UniProtKB/TrEMBL annotation:
High-level lineage: Bacteria, Pseudomonadati, Bacteroidota, Sphingobacteriia, Sphingobacteriales
Residue span, SnoaL-like domain: 12-56
Highest taxon of source: Bacteria
Segments traversing the membrane: none
Protein name: Nuclear transport factor 2 family protein
InterPro entries named among the record's database cross-references: NTF2-like_dom_sf, SnoaL-like
SUPFAM superfamilies linked: NTF2-like
Length: 68
């Protein structure tokens, strides 16, 4: 069984490589990306458009997974 931590790590590795479509393969069509106090991206296409504009350079992510 694949854990959430592994899924998150794999998705973020795609972004680190500049593979936006690879990252989006982990998102559902009705995904929402919330920037608290700023904006909310609704849908895979909105996230893709944002990533293509904002991620012009390779980005390194650090993340922590919490069990709820």
């Amino acid at each position: 069984m694949v854990t959430n931590k592994v899924l998150l790590k794999t998705a973020n590795e795609a972004l680190e490589k500049g593979d936006i479509d690879g990252f989006l393969s982990f998102c559902t069509d009705d995904t929402e990306w919330v920037f608290i106090g700023e904006k909310t991206l609704k849908g895979k296409e909105a996230v893709k458009q944002y990533l293509e504009e904002a991620y012009t350079e390779t980005t390194l992510f650090e993340y922590q997974c919490y069990k709820f």
